[in-house]
Specification:
By secondary structure, the chain is α/β, with parallel strands linked by helices. It is built from 10 helices and 12 strands. The chain has 2 domains: 185 residues, Glycogen Phosphorylase B (Rossmann fold, 3-Layer(aba) Sandwich), CATH 3.40.50; 115 residues, Rossmann fold. It is 36% helix and 17% strand. The strands form 2 sheets. The protein has a 7-stranded parallel β-sheet with strand order 3-2-1-4-5-6-7, with helices on both faces. A 5-stranded parallel β-sheet has the order 10-9-8-11-12, sandwiched between helices. Helix 1 packs across helix 9.
Length: 312
């Protein structure tokens, strides 16, 4: 079994899914640990991911690697959007798998670690898959998606499940159905690396998830903004102009200033946003109450929202 604390003196290729920044932020602690164990980490990522990771003083080398071609209509039908995009996604996956072989040779890689990127693996080098979704919350005909997820994960030599083995914050999503290859590596949050601070602001609204749902997210928490329960909104740069168009004067912090975002998170009394699993792990690590809503039509977040009806 390949475990994080048993990898030393290796050249590691690391790549993270480009579905928001949650996948990126939860890998910061993993990368730090690997670096502390005298490993050389090569991060294959896009420009947005690189700009975030560079702010955490990682010693890694960054290599340009485009993200999966996701496209959402913002109308709450994730399954339909994914089905319509499936041919391009699978075409990219095959392309990524071939390109990964060239990465191995060019950078003389010993290991590959993928956070939810199904094409970032090799038959010739130990390949590790990071996920909290061993099972998908699908029903009916869409159970085929769960079978596909299982098949794609089977291509990897080991699976690191991002969850607490006993508390199981992801519920049935993180059931270890393959203990011979899969292990729990616990809750992962960049806030494990930072010092605790006094809770001095009322609340923070996190703009997470697909950008097509940003306006819906802000509208869902307008009441809290009007009641001064939210002091900061954090998210991608485009949100600033969106707030300006809506005449919102609330303080905004863009993702290119993670130090300011982390400070706001550490000092907040409450977190608002979509029910992303990484956001949930951040709240658990910070021991801060949260009011999170599921992205419309996203079954995983609907499941998590039902499982965590009560905040901390």
């Amino acid at each position: 079994m390949i475990q994080p604390n048993r990898i030393f003196n290796k050249r590691i290729g690391f790549s993270v899914l480009n579905w928001g920044l949650g996948h990126v932020s939860r890998c910061i602690t993993v990368i730090k640990k690997l670096e502390q164990q005298n490993n050389k980490v090569f991060i294959f990522c896009d420009g947005v991911q690189k700009s975030l990771l560079e702010q955490y003083s990682l010693e890694a080398e960054y290599i340009d690697h485009e993200g999966y071609p996701f496209l959402f209509r913002g109308k709450g039908n994730f399954k339909r959007d994914m089905l319509l995009r499936a041919p391009k996604l699978f075409s990219f996956l095959r392309h990524e798998q071939k390109r990964t072989q060239t990465f191995i040779q060019k950078y003389e890689l010993d290991f590959l670690i993928s956070d939810q990127r199904y094409g970032f693996y090799s038959k010739d080098k130990p390949s590790i898959f990071i996920t909290h979704q061993m099972k998908l919350p699908t029903r009916g005909i869409f159970k085929l998606g769960d079978l596909l997820n299982e098949y794609l994960i089977s291509k990897f030599d080991a699976i690191w499940i991002v969850d607490d083995e006993h508390k199981r914050f992801a519920g049935r999503l993180s059931v270890n159905s393959d203990p011979s290859r899969a292990i729990y590596i616990g809750v992962q949050s960049r806030f494990e690396l930072l010092n605790k601070k006094v809770k001095s602001n009322e609340g923070i609204l996190v703009i997470n998830g697909p950008k097509e749902y940003t306006e819906y997210l802000i509208a869902s928490f307008n009441e809290f903004i009007d009641q001064s329960k939210i002091d900061y909104i954090v998210g991608p740069k485009f949100v600033k102009s969106l707030l300006k168009d809506k005449n919102e004067t609330i303080r905004f912090i863009a993702n290119d200033d993670m130090a300011a975002i982390d400070n706001a998170f550490q000092s907040t009394k409450h977190v608002y946003g979509f029910f992303g699993y990484s956001t949930l792990m951040d709240c658990i690590t910070l021991n801060v109450p949260f009011t999170l809503i599921p992205t419309p039509g996203q079954d995983e977040q609907i499941y998590l929202a039902k499982r965590h009806k009560k905040s901390l």
